[in-house]
Amino acid sequence: MNGFNGTEVTNGLEPIISLNMADQVEERLRSYFKQQGFVPGDALPKENELAEALSVSRTVIREALSRLRMLGMIDSRKRRGMILTEPDVLSGLDRIMDSRLLGDNAQKQLFELRLVIEIGLSDLLFLRKSEKSLKTLDKIVDEEEKFALSPKDHAKYDIEFHGKLYQMTGNETLYRFQKMLAFVFEYAIQVTSDLDEKSRTGAISHRDLVHILRHGDPEIFRNAMRQHLEPYYNQI
Fold first, then answer.
1. Distance CA 154, CA 143 (A)
2. For residue range 126-179, what is the model confidence (pLDDT) as tens digits?
3. Per-residue pLDDT reduced to its tens digit, 99-119
4. Is 220 helix (H, G, I), strand (E, B) or coil?
5. Cβ contacts of residue 67 below 8 Å, gap of 6+?
6. Where are the beta strands (DSSP E) in 115-205?
């Protein structure tokens, strides 16, 4: 017969997390919406019906619903009551993406995330690029080469150039996320502040990237972007 000592038995147990009533109701409602197959736009039961079904007060129901409303999961519509809505996945992040709210380590991690994402943009760019968008990149590069005299100037054109790349992917979530990450370019200035202009630019320039977008392929562009971002990788 197999025997177990106390340590072996308890090793497989997870601690119980204490939930207050509103926590439990919020969790139960999430499960209910999924189990019942509700989709965005569907009308939901009224507050009093939910309170009665869960045997809790309407105050508790309102607190749980308020949390779901803040997450963008539900909304109230005239003559329809509460409906299930599609959450905006970036709305919560947008409120905290501020260098004044985030420490150096958080900014560093976000900047590293930006580097990883940009190397991965390649396939979408080649699927959705257009001559019009490439001409916009040409214009940004022309202005950068003519007017950028300081690291701060280059950071401004860097934001504009890479922001256009995100926009060219046709993925609105990616583009919004890039705009939210704009403040981490200040971090980029800091990590490359001791480098000369040639070292800060890397082996591949913005103009090189545009040329590859016109005449290369996704794999060449992916490798070129990695080289373009090399100075940052070397600093982190």
1. 10
2. 999 999 999 999 999 999 999 998 877 888 898 899 999 999 999 999 998 888
3. 777 888 888 898 899 899 999
4. helix
5. 22, 26
6. none
10 Å CB burial of residue 8 (0-12, 13-18, 19+) is exposed
- CATH fold for domain 93-235: Four Helix Bundle (Hemerythrin (Met), subunit A) (1.20.120)
List the domain boundaries for the chain. 6-84, 93-235
- Give CA 213 to chain center in angstroms: 25
Segment (H or E) for 69 = helix 58-70
Dihedral of alpha carbons 109, 115, 121, 122, sign: negative
The matching CATH number, chosen from 3.30.70.1170, 1.10.150.320, 1.25.40.10, 1.10.10.10, for 6-84 is: 1.10.10.10
